[in-house]
């Protein structure tokens, strides 16, 4: 066959997270039997959190995303479903399907957690938004906006003493202290 040229194709296969095998028995599955995995990438691309079931593996760009920098495993049996990195600091805000919020350092260390009852809501958490304000208080590490299914927004500030303060805003726009 004249006119047909064969081209050589080069490619590279990479494994992005290697570590010793550790059984996660009993495995956590969704009702439909399929596993859930989420990748949460920081704005700068410096950090990637891979959430599977109740475990989060944090990878760094400095390590070419090859080795875990931090691993967090929740003692709850929930599955992580919503999360986001703070814009200014490497703090991950993440919620599980039991509506428990976790705030985790890039090395996998838990700063604090917030239970749904602390927010005084009956609606499920549907999302997190980083809220890095220039005029934030000096003791505040970072803050997040939490959105619930009923349209209420909760502003949560994480301070250096590993405690939180929050304020929620009604869905008609009137701020209320929580």
Describe the structure.
This protein is 2% helix and 43% strand. The strands form three sheets. Strands 9-10-11-12-13 form a five-stranded antiparallel beta sheet, with no helix packed on it. Strands 1-2-3-4 form a four-stranded antiparallel beta sheet, with no helix packed on it. Strands 5-6-7-8 form a four-stranded antiparallel beta sheet. The chain has 178 residues and is mainly beta. The chain is elongated, with a radius of gyration of 20 Å. It has one domain (37-169): YVTN repeat-like/Quinoprotein amine dehydrogenase (Methylamine Dehydrogenase, Chain H, 7 Propeller). The protein has one helix spanning 116-119; strands at residues 37-41, 47-52, 55-60, 68-73, 80-85, 91-96, 101-105, 110-114, 125-130, 140-148, 153-159, 164-169, 175-177.
The biggest beta sheet reads: 5 strands, antiparallel
CATH domain class name = Mainly Beta
CATH architecture: 7 Propeller
Can you tell me the residue ranges where pLDDT is under 50 for at least 5 consecutive residues? 19-30, 171-178
Q: Strand fraction band?
A: 35-45%
Overall average residue pLDDT: 78
CATH superfamily: YVTN repeat-like/Quinoprotein amine dehydrogenase
In the CATH hierarchy, the third-tier topology is known as: Methylamine Dehydrogenase, Chain H
Give the count of structural domains: 1
Instruction: Output the strand order for the largest sheet.
Output: 9-10-11-12-13
Helix content: under 10%
> Strand tally, please?
13
Global outline: elongated
| Class by alpha and beta content | mainly beta
* Quaternary state of the chains: single chain
Count of DSSP-assigned helices: 1
